[in-house]
Amino acid sequence: MRRLPPSMLLIVAALTYHVLARQIPFLETSPDSPEAHATGFQLRHVFDHGSGTNANLHLRLDVPASHVFATGDSKFYLSSVSQNVTRLSQRDPDFMESYLAYTSRPNAIKTTDFDWIHERIRTPNISDPDTLATLARMTSDAYVAVPESNDWVDVGVPFNESGGFGWDSNGVRGHVFTDDGNQTVVVAIKGTSAYLFDSDGDTRVNDKINDNLLFSCCCARISYMWTTVCDCYQKSYTCSQTCLEGALYAEDKYYRALLDIYRNTTSLYPNSTIWLTGHSLGGSMAALLGRTYGLPTVAFEAPPERLAAQRLHLPFPPVPANESTIWHFGNTADPIFMGICNGASSACWVGGFAMETQCHSGLECVYDTVHDKKWHVSVSSHRISAVIDMITSYNTTATCVERSDCQDCFDWNFV
After folding, report:
1. Interior CA angle at 69 toward 59 and 185, to 5°?
2. In Å, how far from its chain's centre is CA 334?
3. Within the chain, what is the greatest distance between any pair of CA atoms?
4. Are 50 and 257 in contact (CB under 8 A)?
5. In whole angstroms, what is the distance from residue 400 CA to residue 367 CA?
6. The Fungal lipase-type domain covers which part of the protein (predicted)?
7. pLDDT tens readout for residues 271-316
8. Strand partners, 400
9. Measuring CA to CA, how many Å separate 138 from each of 15, 112, 144, 351, 360?
10. 293 with 314: CB under 8 angstroms?
11. Which of 145, 196, 347, 410 is the most buried (most CB within 10 A)?
12. List 79, 140, 193, 280, catalytic entry
């Protein structure tokens, strides 16, 4: 679907601004009946949205029903629970993109009163280890670069461009899974490809640019020797807030690409409940998209993204933190998730990643692998394979709580 022209976006904004471990079935129990039925999820599409110089490309691969995963299965199985959520009453893509375009402009009013609604929807059963491990496997499949790789079956004619889509390897990738009745859709967002994280791939250059934009205090300006990813630095520990907000919402960056993936997913499945998941950068991007549209989101080992959410002026519902439907799962041995992969001696610094943030939005669900499993603090604990092993080694899932004792970039002045 097309985006509204910029002039129309601003008009709409002005008018609206003030207003393989063991798998188990997807259990969907009606409040009126204890009877449950099982439904599996199949991979239906792969969206690939360009970034950088290829920002105008948005591509789709349709996956046939005969597709099987690397595990040999044709379906993933999940369980769900019924949960009350609070989210915006108006949250269609046209409205949200007009709002975001307005708030990214210089001199825009940055606060507004939203209209909120309370709904009861089905969300992933995060208290079930099997469901959690299965969501992690779905994120793992999002790392596979092309269908011709050894982890994927040959899908025949690989690219369906009938709707203006095709394929581009250097951008944001979202794998779209649906149940048999298309009642629930899971979008898994690919994370960072980099030698540092034991995950090489064609997207690694732009992945690093977006990592350094999202998770640094000011454009990855942590030393005069570093190449910055935007021009917002002014002087020692002083950065332009308006510049940062515009940089995050820029057309050639990942957040804008992710909005297109969501728009096109909802155009295919307008009546479906959508869940998001992702690992690493993909987990943070999923959390930002979940925050934008009020979608249940399960992120794995995601770098802290609350600062980016605030810079984008994403809506935070006025509810207690324990009612959040954004869950960040990680472990104490992962310095990236814990927000401590910084400083000149860290692996992130050596690899060229300015990972300075410490605060997640939503709830943190932390496995204490350092104490329980005697894991050493290392970026190897960040890998998705380690995450799957971790989840399946515990009999219960980690408790999810709000972290209120953190502050991002306290020594910086944003003007």
Report:
1. 55
2. 18
3. 64
4. yes
5. 10
6. 253-289
7. 999 999 999 999 999 999 999 999 999 999 999 999 999 999 999 9
8. 365
9. 40, 37, 11, 27, 22
10. no
11. 196
12. 280
pLDDT digits (tens, 9 = 90+) for 211-238: 999 999 999 999 888 989 999 999 999 9
* Residue that is written with structure tokens 């207690």 in the block: 320
216 burial via Cβ count (<10 Å: 0-12, 13-18, 19+): buried
In the numeric block, the tokens 């993109």 are attached to 97
DSSP 280: T
Cα–Cα distance measured from residue 345 to residue 367, given in angstroms and rounded to the nearest whole number: 25
Buried b or exposed e, range 21-46, using 16+ CB within 10 angstroms: eebeebbbeeeeeeeeeebbbbbbbb
Strand 171-179 relative to strand 40-50: parallel, antiparallel, unpaired? antiparallel
Average pLDDT over residues 107-113: 70
* More confident of the two residues 202 and 132: 132
Dist. CA 400–CA 321, nearest whole Å: 10
- 74 part of the active site: no
If you compute the radius of gyration of the chain from its CA atoms, what whole number of angstroms results? 20
Would you state the pLDDT for residue 160? 35
Q: What is the pLDDT at residue 263? A: 92
CA–CA distance, 169 with 54 (Å, rounded to integer): 10
Give a three-class secondary structure readout of 99-135: HHHHHCCCCCCCCCCCCEEEEEEEEECCCCHHHHHHH
Phi, psi (rounded to 5 degrees) for 323: -95, 5
- Strands of 413-414's sheet, edge to edge? 233-235, 238-239, 413-414
